Each structure stands twice: as structure tokens, then as C-alpha cells.
Amino acid sequence: MKIQQLEYVIAVAREGSITKAAKKLYQAQPNISIALKELEASLGIQIFNRSPNGMILTPEGEEFLARAQTIVDEMQSLERDYAQTPENELKLKVAAARSTYATSAMGKLISDYSEKTDKIEVHVMETSTAKVMEDICAGKYDIGFIRIPSTYADMIESRLKARNLVGKTIMEFPLQVVMNMNHPLAQYEDIPYELLYNYPEIIHGDDEPEMMRRASINQDYDDKRSTKRIFIYDRGTQISMLKTVKNAYMWVSPMSQRVLKYNDLVLRKCSYANNLNRDMIIYRKASENSTLISDCIRTVFEYADKVEGLEI
């Protein structure tokens, strides 16, 4: 059994056909077909049922896929943790949930490295907190940023520890409201919560349950009272919508004054949002002594301090 065969099984299961998997992996279709048949023969099981509608996992195949995915994830994790990156090269994969300032800090890190490195290869993915934890644990990404209600902190830290992940709190804060500088409510320094119902709300598109929204904003928060809601996953699109959807608003963490000014936005307090949220940076315990991870942590904390101090 070879790792490549396991990767083929995962790709075929994900894509639903050998043809699509071959395109995804930049492999010849016959090579994958032969490899799968050899694997099934050596194991004495049938992993896929071949049908006119594509490749369908058998019950044995479902079990095999789960174990194959674990093995491939572990291999990727080992390679990322112990591969030696040349000093004149920056290779980094970042997974982030929501924190605009955190990805801005990564931009600062990249700029610093670009002055002393010959090659830069950085991948940044926006996703949910659960997916960040999953992908960091699997070794698909080097470092991640998550946001949780502070009341969930003990539970999340327990999960991180169980997965051999390290989590450091960057900042803790109540959510605030961001809106266009010409928004009718921009005149308030502390916005009365009941007035927000009259305006469209932009919501992060990972479709979090109402209990999470309550834990993030206020224990009495009622998700159903808001009737104008726009769910958007991408951060850039969220900012674009705040500029173009008339009188839209969004609950956010502290934001850079530079970003606000550039996009004609303002940040306002809303005392109703009295629950605290916590932004954390997470990474694998095996990466603790990595110079690059240390640089990431230092840069993010320095940037976060400036955002909180309204310096940037």
C-alpha cells in the first residue's frame, strides 16, 4: 500500500469520478484506475461501486476512506512540522476565521520577510473556527486564527489540548458595530440596540447557530427579530457591501482606523453587546520552536496592540 494510492481514494471519493479526480491531481486517468484496482486486490475489499452516476463508496470503502484520510493528514502534518525551509524562503499557510486585523498582521509579516527572502509562498484561507482547528490539526495549515465567545474558552482550550494544538489569546472584547460614515446611526457614540432592527445586517456566512450569536452579543439576543439579513463569507465582500448596501451594518471586533478611513466606515459602541469574545492564534505543539511561528505570533500581538490603541 502506498500513500499515493490513499490520496487517489480520497480524491475519487471527493470528486465522485476517476475522470474528475485525475484532472484535480494532474494525473492520467488510467494510472488512477490501475492503482485503485491494485489496492482493492491487495486488501481483498471493494472500495468503490462503479455506476453510471460515478464512483460510490461501499460500506467497507467508507471505513477505509476515514482511516486513509487520517493517515494522509498525519503525513502532511509530519512533512510540514519537520521539513527544513531554506533561510531565504518564506513558506506559510494561514487559516483565519473573521479577524481582519490578524490577516492584516500577516501582510505586515510578509512585507518584513520580503526584504530578506528570495522566495515567498503564502496561502491564506478564510473559513469557520471549526474548520481552522481541523485543518491546523491535520497539518494542512501552519497557523490559524479563531474567534469564540469567552464563555466557551474552557471547552475550546480542552479541544485544542486534545488535538496537540496550542492556543494563545490575542485579545478579548465586546463586539462593536461598523457602518458607513453616512449611516443614520453614525451620529451615536453608543447606538441604542433597538434602532438596529430598522437596517440591513451583514452577517458572517458560516451560518452559526443562534446560541452562538447570543453568546457573542447578549444572552437575551433574539435572532428572529432581524428581518433584513445578508450572509457573506468573504471579508472583502463584507466591506464592499457595507459601502454599497444602503444603511447596512455589521457586528465586528476592533478594526484598524486605517481600514475604516479608507473604506469610509466608522466603528460604534453598542452597550447591549455586553458579552466578551476572544480571538486566539493556534498552531501545532510540534511547531512551538519554529522561528517562523514565533515571528507570526510576535507580529500579530504587536499589530493587535496598535489596533486596540487606535494607532493604526
From TrEMBL:
Q: Does the keyword Transcription regulation apply?
A: yes
Q: Which Pfam families match?
A: HTH_1 (PF00126), LysR_substrate (PF03466)
Tell me which InterPro entries the record gives.
LysR_HTH_N, LysR_subst-bd, WH-like_DNA-bd_sf, WH_DNA-bd_sf
Q: Which GO terms describe its molecular function?
A: DNA binding; DNA-binding transcription factor activity
Q: Which UniProt keywords apply?
A: DNA-binding, Transcription, Transcription regulation
Top-rank lineage group of the source organism? Bacteria
Q: Which residues form the HTH lysR-type domain?
A: 1-58
A single Gene Ontology CC term: protein-DNA complex
Q: Which family does it belong to?
A: Belongs to the LysR transcriptional regulatory family.
Q: What is this protein called?
A: HTH lysR-type domain-containing protein
